[in-house]
């Protein structure tokens, strides 16, 4: 289930964004081949040494305090959070802080965090459209997030609840990364079999895709290491032609694969989870 409450990674943003409210109440993505990269931007690509990193983190903290988004004080004290956004923006302090500000604003004010009820999210979750495959790791040790696209029906979905569910699912995937082992990203598997581009059961939800792009670019930057579109039918071609430009450099992470090719993303047949095993038949 993807409905779990926020944990480590965006709980960090949650803590920052909600810190002030609580106080008041109390008073270029690199392409690493078939599998994708294990990490993404080594610090030395934008910083001369550890001292330079420290200076940049300090500058980002000060700039964040001056920008004063929700939870600025708590975020400015979180060196790991600041460093992640600096890495994402290749050491550009202004760009990193602007991006982090957008994430904090989103975490504090977006309907998917502030007004969507648990029951609405539970209804979306019950469709089985998205799931973090518990205990599953790909050949690079990354957690696996499965999206069954045919179960996302535009005419039937609650878009805010779908956004909330997706945010929580990605958050859970990030939290499942073992950063101490050098695993900072997750694998996204989109089961495209049965995709319908039109009709009453259409799965072509452009408004939702735009949100997902923003989710991955602004709010969980560089956290997805590879996206597999599995078994996409011919009817998906026109949809992809619209969506691809929205992805920018993130489009390089996408691979179209046939169902049986899912095996190459896992070390052994036994490592392919039950939820994906039918693709290999």
UniProtKB/TrEMBL annotation:
Top-level taxonomy: Eukaryota, Viridiplantae, Prasinodermophyta, Prasinodermophyceae, Prasinodermales
Transmembrane segments: none
Domain CRAL-TRIO per the UniProt entry, residue ranges: 118-281
Pfam families: CRAL_TRIO (PF00650)
Stretches assigned to coiled coil: none
SMART domains on file: SEC14
InterPro entries xref list: CRAL-TRIO_dom (IPR001251), CRAL-TRIO_dom_sf (IPR036865), CRAL/TRIO_N_dom_sf (IPR036273)
Domain of life of the native organism: Eukaryota
Protein name (Swiss-Prot/TrEMBL): CRAL-TRIO domain-containing protein
Species annotation: Prasinoderma singulare
């Amino acid at each position: 289930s993807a409905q779990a409450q926020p944990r480590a990674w965006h709980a960090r943003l949650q803590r920052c964004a909600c810190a002030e409210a609580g106080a008041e109440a109390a008073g270029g993505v690199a392409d690493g081949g078939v599998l994708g990269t294990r990490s993404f931007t080594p610090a030395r690509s934008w910083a001369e040494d550890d001292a330079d990193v420290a200076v940049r983190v300090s500058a980002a903290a000060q700039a964040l305090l001056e920008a004063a988004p929700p939870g600025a004080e708590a975020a400015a004290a979180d060196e790991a959070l600041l460093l992640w956004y600096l890495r994402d923006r290749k050491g550009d302090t202004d760009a990193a802080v602007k991006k982090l500000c957008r994430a904090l604003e989103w975490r504090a004010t977006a309907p998917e965090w502030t007004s969507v009820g648990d029951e609405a999210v539970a209804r979306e979750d019950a469709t089985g459209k998205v799931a973090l495959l518990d205990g599953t790791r790909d050949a690079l040790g990354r957690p696996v997030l499965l999206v069954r696209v045919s179960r996302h029906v535009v005419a039937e979905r609650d878009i805010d609840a779908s956004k909330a569910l997706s945010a929580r699912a990605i958050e859970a995937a990030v939290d499942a990364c073992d950063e101490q082992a050098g695993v900072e990203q997750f694998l996204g598997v989109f089961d495209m079999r049965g995709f319908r581009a039109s009709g009453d059961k259409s799965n072509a939800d452009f408004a939702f895709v735009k949100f997902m792009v923003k989710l991955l670019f602004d709010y969980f930057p560089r956290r997805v290491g590879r996206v597999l579109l599995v078994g996409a039918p011919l009817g998906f071609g026109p949809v992809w032609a619209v969506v691809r430009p929205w992805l920018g450099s993130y489009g390089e992470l996408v691979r179209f694969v046939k169902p049986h090719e899912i095996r190459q993303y896992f070390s052994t047949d036994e490592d392919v989870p039950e939820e994906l095993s039918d693709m290999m038949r």
